[in-house]
Specification:
The structure holds 2 protein chains of 2 kinds. Helices cover 69% and strands 0% of the residues of chain A. By secondary structure, chain A is an all-alpha fold. Chain B is built from 7 helices and no strands. In chain B, helix 2 (31-51) runs antiparallel to helix 3. The chains are: A mainly alpha, B mainly alpha. Chain A binds chain B through residues 22, 25-26, 94, 96-97, 100, 127-129, 132-133, 135-140, 142-143, 146-147, 149-151, 153, 158, 161-162, 165, 169, 188-189, and chain B through 5-6, 30, 32-33, 36, 39, 55-56, 59-60, 62-63, 66-68, 70-71, 74-75, 77-79, 84, 131, 133-134.
């Protein structure tokens, strides 16, 4: 079977044979960047269509159904429309910061996106501090949101940005703590090590299962990560930063055309990234489902035949669906409820969970 | 020594960006813009660490300085009114202090540069600085043997705890006065 790593090494050898080393490396970087950007945009289109269809189902509507078969081309049409829209420049804004903010927001999301491993051999960034890198680089997005809110020179955007910043910083803590819980179980911060520990055979000849099945505390960490991660994407029921009845559209009120599109893209992809990280750390990334028992070897063999990228995308989209389900079901929280949930409930539970996991691993 | 290797070019770009944003940070008349330029400076320094294979230090730089401190500064600025206008930089009295700080800073840098020699090129440097894995960092931080840092680690954590308790004390004191 042709694997991704073989294709990639063929391209790499072809380039290094034909060109001098520095040029080959540069071209490889450009190819990787372009491929990631393409995937980023295509995923955004799919996610937007998915959200509109599912939201319609929850509200007993049909959703987009005119453009293309079953409305499948709706988000392509929307994309063309948003690209053609006029970008309105506003007086009395801090122009440099106004323009910088949207690039920071999308760069933060894109850098995290690059750290995901989409399949066997489909990884761009693989540091030995991978999980730490993911937690660190997401701060770019927070700075982008704060600057966008301030530089628009509008009270709604400022309030929206403050709420968003406070929410992101608070929920980052329990998201980080629950990831650390899993790092203790995995014994490594590197994303490829974390994935490798969830598949294949272990030293005793049994099958490795996903981390969520390996320890009871992992299930608690998984639920906390899903809640905190959902809050970090600024989506309902945690969408106070853009509560439309109070703040029009929050921090991106003053942006128009494709500038608004950038924030929109980053928001949808953040949802995908959170789901992707959860799938990687808790549900085995691109590793197939395995059952650690003697009778299940045929089942494990069968699951191993499904391509790795289908496993990753399947798990991630299942978690995205969960996130959409939550979004369209629960009413919006108040700011005090939001902060109480984090600081008085999720944080103590995750710290306790971290300690229990440490004891579990030692025993 | 070849000057235009790929790693040298990347270093020059990063160094130029650090200097440019550093100068913009101190010359900008709008305080939020200065904070943004500071953010970019810290971000480019993380790039330098990555070039030296210090991935852990780069991630720490991003999360502590770029992510933590700059966001706190921006938050503080957003909470204060009327900082959007251009402010005249008041040099007057600060000139002497600034001069002293600049001289002390340059002497420190000069001493450090004079003390440690330069390596001939990037490739030898890359061989010498192997990527440090997390296991080693963890054991060095928590160890009690020679060249291990349990005591400083604990001392710093006590200091941080004192800071947290202090900030809680200040925050609750304010509330009682308001009642």
């Amino acid at each position: 079977m042709l694997t991704f790593s073989e294709i990639i090494s063929t391209i790499h050898e072809g380039l290094t044979d034909a060109l001098p080393g520095w040029l080959a490396t540069t071209i490889e970087y450009v190819i990787i960047g372009a491929a990631l950007l393409g995937l980023y945009c295509v995923l955004a289109l799919i996610l937007i269509l998915l959200e509109r269809k599912i939201c319609a189902r929850f509200q007993c509507r049909i959703g987009p159904n005119r453009v293309g078969p079953w409305g499948l081309l709706q988000s392509v049409a929307d994309m063309v429309k948003i690209l053609l829209k006029e970008i309105i420049s506003i007086k009395n804004t801090d122009n440099i910061l106004f323009k910088t903010a949207l690039f920071l927001a999308i760069a933060g999301s894109f850098c995290t996106f690059g750290a995901l491993q989409f399949g066997d051999g489909l990884a761009c960034i693989d540091f030995n501090v991978g999980v730490f890198y993911i937690l660190a680089i997401s701060s770019l997005g927070v700075v982008g949101i704060l600057l966008a809110g301030w530089s628009s020179n509008n009270k709604y955007t400022l309030i929206g940005a403050m709420r968003s910043g406070a929410q992101l910083i608070s929920y980052e803590l329990s998201a980080g703590l629950s990831l650390m819980t899993m790092v203790i179980l995995a014994g490594s911060l590197s994303i490829s090590d974390i994935i490798a520990g969830q598949g294949g055979m272990n030293a005793e000849g049994g099958y490795n299962t996903w981390y969520i099945f390996q320890a009871p505390t992992a299930i608690i960490a998984f639920i906390i990560y899903l809640i905190a991660g959902h809050a970090e994407t600024n989506r309902g029921p945690f969408d106070l930063p853009e509560a439309e009845s109070e703040l029009t559209a929050g921090y991106h009120t003053e942006y128009s055309g494709i500038q608004f599109g950038f924030f929109y893209l980053a928001e949808y992809l953040n949802m995908f990234i959170i789901a992707g990280i959860a799938a990687t750390v808790f549900l085995g990334g691109w590793q197939p489902l395995q059952i650690n028992a003697g009778w299940a070897s045929g089942f494990n063999e069968l699951m191993g035949q499904i391509p790795s990228w289908i496993w990753f995308m399947g798990k991630t989209f299942a978690l995205v669906l969960l996130s959409l389900w939550v979004r369209w079901t629960f009413p919006r929280l108040r700011i005090d409820q939001l902060l109480k949930l984090e600081w008085k409930i999720l944080m103590p539970i995750s710290i306790l969970n971290l300690l229990i996991m440490a004891v579990w691993v030692i025993i | 020594m070849e000057l235009l290797t790929a790693s040298n070019i990347i270093f020059f770009i990063l160094a130029a960006a650090i200097l440019l944003f550093g100068i913009l940070t101190v010359t900008s008349t709008k305080i939020l813009r200065a904070a943004t330029y500071l953010f970019f400076t810290l971000f480019c320094i993380a790039g330098l660490y990555l070039q030296l294979n210090y991935e852990f230090l780069a991630a720490v730089q991003l999360s502590v300085y770029a992510g933590g401190i700059v966001i706190l500064i921006v938050f503080a600025i957003l909470l204060i009114k009327g900082l959007g206008e251009d402010k005249e930089i008041n040099i007057g009295q600060r000139r002497i202090m600034g001069l002293v700080a600049a001289i002390v800073g340059s002497i420190t840098c000069a001493c450090v540069i004079a003390k440690y020699g330069f390596l001939p090129d990037y490739d030898t440097a890359a061989e010498l600085t192997q990527a440090v894995d997390m296991q080693m960092i963890g054991q060095t931080l928590m160890g009690t043997k020679q060249y291990e840092y349990l005591l400083p680690f604990e001392a710093v954590s006590v200091l941080l705890l004192a800071c947290i308790i202090g900030s809680i004390a200040i925050a609750t004191k304010d509330k009682e006065v308001n009642k």
